[in-house]
Amino acid sequence: MAPLASALAIPTSSTSSPTRQRKRTAPTRRPRAPTRCGTADVSEASSSGPTNRSVVVMCHGVTPHARAGLFSAANLLQGRVDVWCRCVTAGLYLSDDVRRDTVVHLVMQSDDLASCRLVSVDGARVEGLAPAEKNVALLLQRAMQHASLDQLPLLARDAPGGRRSRVGDGDGDEVREKSARNARKREASWLRDRPGSAGPVPGIAVSDHQSLETCLRDALRGCGAVALLDVDGDDASCVLARPPDNPDNGDGFAVVVGDGSGVTPDERRTLMFVFGAVLMALGGGRMLLASHCVVLAHAALDGEEARRRRMGTSLRG
């Protein structure tokens, strides 16, 4: 039996302990925006380096509630918040990195055009961003709510199905006073639970403007060249090969795209005659989604910058 036992014996050196844990490799995750970014020294930037870019998305029909961040991250189709999120993702994300030279501006206009809200997401400074639409929506919601904290309770009461006062017309003065006091407590408690009460979002700036022109002036600040994406425009290679139209305004390049409603005639006139925008076509004459246009515009700019680096020049002229 000894030879048989020795033949069946398995060397202990080649076996692994049943209690030994296998090392599991962490799943590959999409890149997130940096949690902390250093400030780049502009004086050391070479003329052949990346040109600062602005992606401007014209958002139409934005209700006062959506503009204040009172939307549901579980239903992004309501108010077409999904378009905002996809444009932010398309404007800032590469496959393995974040475009730190790009700022995405959401120009939010109401139906009455009484005012505009500008929400700017800076790829070099934003924290906690991830490509998932819901993640983008939650950050936008927090930033927009924080900018409208003093208006949130009133807007929430006016919203369909919103919070209503429980005080009746026939109640006595004492009941009214007590009910009003309780209502203020409930309102304060409700406000504390809103995402906007957590403070602003680093890298996301929110500002309100009295007109479209002042809003666009803020979004296009520092951009010497502005391209309005239009199916009837010139080919992107021709537009990008031209020198900047307004080099005194800065060395940045701005791309303006409309949401599902496109760009209105008034917006087109303002962009072309006030800011010198030129029409640029992408997609070979096909109507594309706004987020697709942003990706193709980035690709065209990347290709032109690579070509100019080989030639020793830059988009700055």
Structural notes for this entry:
GO terms for molecular function: S-adenosylmethionine-dependent methyltransferase activity; tRNA methyltransferase activity. Residues 1-19 have a biased composition (Low complexity). Residues 20-33 have a biased composition (Basic residues). Keywords: Cytoplasm, Methyltransferase, S-adenosyl-L-methionine, Transferase. This protein is α/β, with parallel strands linked by helices and 317 residues long. It has a single domain, classed as SPOUT methyltransferase, trefoil knot domain (Alpha/beta knot, 3-Layer(aba) Sandwich). Helices cover 35% and strands 16% of the residues. The protein is built from 10 helices and 7 strands. The chain has helices spanning 2-8, 64-67, 81-92, 133-146, 152-158, 173-192, 212-219, 236-241, 265-274, 290-311, and strands spanning 53-59, 102-109, 116-122, 204-209, 223-235, 252-258, 278-281. A 7-stranded mixed sheet has the order 4-3-2-1-6-5-7. The longest helix has 22 residues, at 290-311.
| CATH-derived architecture | 3-Layer(aba) Sandwich
CATH superfamily: SPOUT methyltransferase, trefoil knot domain
Number of domains: 1
Strand order of the largest sheet: 4-3-2-1-6-5-7
**How many beta strands in the DSSP annotation?**
7
Principal-axes shape call:
elongated
Instruction: Determine the mean pLDDT.
Output: 79
Give the CA-CA distance, first to last residue.
Answer: 90 Å
Tell me about the largest β-sheet. 7 strands, mixed
> What is the helical fraction, as a range of percent?
25-40%
Classify the beta-strand content into a percent band: 15-25%
The helix-and-strand class reads alpha/beta
The SSE string, one letter per element, is: HEHHEEHHHEHEHEHEH
Number of helices: 10
Low-pLDDT residue intervals, each spanning 5 or more residues: 4-19, 34-49, 164-170
Give the C-level CATH assignment: Alpha Beta
Rg over CA atoms, rounded to whole Å, is: 27 Å
> What's the CATH topology label?
Alpha/beta knot
